[in-house]
Design goal:
Helix content is 6%, strand content 50%. With 284 residues, it is mainly beta. The strands form 5 sheets. The protein has a 12-stranded antiparallel β-barrel.
């Protein structure tokens, strides 16, 4: 259920490649040296800025997070902004419309998810192995309904996770740990999500095959019933993305889970059932 304000304006067309605040290099065309004078010296190129800001915006047939639909299989508009420094430090924000909290009947006035995150990424020497560590805060504006206040198993959905990832070429392993209770489940701090992701380039076609497997483990218990027995599940995904030189990405993916219907039935349907999603995105 990334998982890295904003990945929003009917995305006429979606997100676009990273924009650097680096100044343009000085004019490369110098006048030829006049006869009898020393050769002209080309002006030095302006130093490259260590700061980079990138934006993205996309239109999705639905928002699926960790295998669970967040919008009752209805369209989602998403967008984000990311700042990164040459040192490896980064900050970002991302947002999407959602419906799952209101669909569950425990929360009202909640149609937005806002994620704020920051961390540090780098590599271990020349090994080709990269690392990424950081914090991610999921923010859900809104208020508990009367049913939500009476539900001992439901707490505020705001979630803070710490994460760490290792990557090698197109393969990534990531672990996210719940510092707070997660996604509204009472006494669920210490829960975690472990995932494997493979984004495999298909030759020179601009197509990338996307594979994912995840395991969401819930800790804690409420009134003698363990969160693990109600909420723990596995999820998986298979899809493909076609990227174009203008920053447009087109993609589709199939997702499924073994989520317990007792814990994930909203509006009479299991939000973890198998489903198919298509999207168009632009980065800039």
């Amino acid at each position: 259920m990334r998982k890295s304000l904003l990945s929003l304006a009917v995305l006429a067309v979606l997100a676009t490649p990273a924009v650097s605040f680096a100044e343009e290099a000085a004019d490369k065309h110098s006048h030829p040296a006049e006869k009898g004078t020393a050769p002209a010296t080309a002006p030095a190129a302006a130093p490259t800025s260590p700061h980079t800001v990138a934006y993205n915006v996309g239109l999705y047939s639905q928002y699926v997070f960790r295998g669970l639909t967040q919008t009752d299989e209805k369209p989602a508009i998403q967008g984000g902004v990311d700042y990164s420094h040459a040192s490896g430090f980064y900050l970002g924000a991302w947002a999407s419309n959602i419906s799952w909290l209101e669909d569950g009947g425990n929360y009202s006035g909640s149609s937005l998810e806002l994620d704020i995150y920051g961390g540090y990424r780098g590599a271990f020497g020349n090994s080709g192995v990269g690392y990424d560590v950081g914090l991610l805060n999921y923010i859900y504006p809104g208020d508990k309904t009367a049913a939500g206040r009476a539900n001992a198993g439901f707490t505020e959905p705001y979630t803070l996770e710490a994460y760490a990832a290792l990557s090698y070429k197109w393969l990534q392993a990531k672990f996210s740990y719940g510092i707070t209770d997660i996604f509204g489940a009472t006494e669920s701090d210490g829960s975690y999500y472990a995932e494997l992701n493979a984004n495999i380039p298909v030759g020179e076609t601009g197509i990338t095959a996307n594979l994912h497997y995840g395991y969401q483990d819930y800790k804690g218990s409420v009134a003698g019933v363990s969160n693990d027995s109600v909420y723990t599940y596995n999820d998986w995904k298979i899809g493909a993305t076609k990227s174009f030189s203008n920053g447009v990405n087109l993609g589709a993916y199939y997702t499924d889970t073994d989520a317990n219907s007792a814990g994930y039935t909203f509006l009479g349907e299991n939000i973890g059932d198998s489903t198919f999603t298509v999207f168009v995105q632009k980065t800039f």
